[in-house]
Design goal:
It contains eight helices and nine strands. The chain has helices spanning 61-70, 75-79, 87-93, 112-116, 120-125, 128-136, 145-154, 218-233; strands spanning 15-18, 27-29, 38-40, 43-46, 95-98, 102-110, 171-174, 180-195, 201-212. The chain has a seven-stranded antiparallel β-sheet. A two-stranded antiparallel ribbon has the order 4-5. The longest helix is centred in the C-terminal third of the chain and has 16 residues, at 218-233. It is elongated, with a radius of gyration of 27 Å. The termini are far apart.
Length: 248
């Protein structure tokens, strides 16, 4: 008779996976899924760029006054212009810079279960293999001994990721089936909290900060498409609009 609960749901694990062929491959499934993700995107609004000092040909007096009023005005002053009683007109004219999405979370590593199971690698090295794999995700592979050797063997035209310049490897942050995101790892802070008798870490937390790489790449486009699909499904909540007071 097997132990455990027969109806226990399968929980997917998040992971970091290197994009592209690599030796050795860099893959770290999360032993424990982070309890929270902090996602942030900043938008910066500004007054449109001031026109050139030379007046355009055929400029009317009213257009000249508008041009001079806009030049050097604050965003609040810009919003108070009479023409922006139409909010859609304001939306069209004000400048906005959309920042990239950032994600921060903590990864927890603990060797206790594998030590209890008698896992030989864990008994010998603790959680060092996982920590070292995470660390190599922020190092150029050309700086590694194996990467340099294989890079010399294959040459710059090889199809391996460590032959592509001096940049760190491209990493995918996988968080379920709907979010597979190419990311830059901006920072990685490792806190080792317990050690074996050989001073190998057996418990640690890793705080990571990521920037999502947006653009035409197929990985991001997949996740963006899933986000739009989820937004469409939100129409089922439109019935609640009857509880919202909309003036006008």
């Amino acid at each position: 008779m097997s132990g455990g609960f027969s109806n226990k749901p399968k929980i997917l694990r998040g992971a970091f996976v290197e994009y592209g062929l690599s030796i050795p491959p860099l893959i770290v499934p999360f032993q424990f899924n982070p309890v929270q993700l902090v996602r942030n995107r900043s938008l910066t609004f500004a007054v449109p760029n001031a026109p050139a000092q030379t007046a355009p040909a055929g400029e009317t007096e009213e257009a000249r006054r508008t041009r001079l009023a806009t030049s050097g005005s604050t965003l609040r002053q810009f919003h108070q212009r009479e023409e922006f009683s139409d909010l859609l007109e304001l939306q069209r004219q004000q400048q906005v810079k959309v920042g990239e999405e950032t994600i921060t979370f903590d990864i927890r590593l603990d060797a206790t279960d594998k030590l209890n199971d008698g896992d030989p690698i864990t008994e010998q090295f603790g959680i060092m293999p996982q920590l070292c794999t995470l660390e190599l995700m922020v190092y150029p592979k050309s700086e590694s001994m194996l990467g340099a050797a294989l890079g010399s063997l294959l040459g710059s035209a090889g199809g391996f990721s460590f032959t592509r310049g001096e940049n760190p490897p491209m990493i995918l942050f996988i968080w379920g089936r709907k979010r597979v995101l190419p990311v830059n790892i901006n920072s990685m802070n490792i806190t080792e909290t317990e050690f074996s008798t050989d001073l190998n870490p057996i418990r640690a937390s890793v705080a990571v900060s990521l920037t999502v790489i947006e653009g035409p790449n197929p990985v991001f486009k997949y996740s963006k498409a899933m986000k739009e699909v989820m937004s469409v499904l939100n129409v089922t909540n439109l019935i609640n609009i009857t509880d919202v007071v909309i003036p006008g």
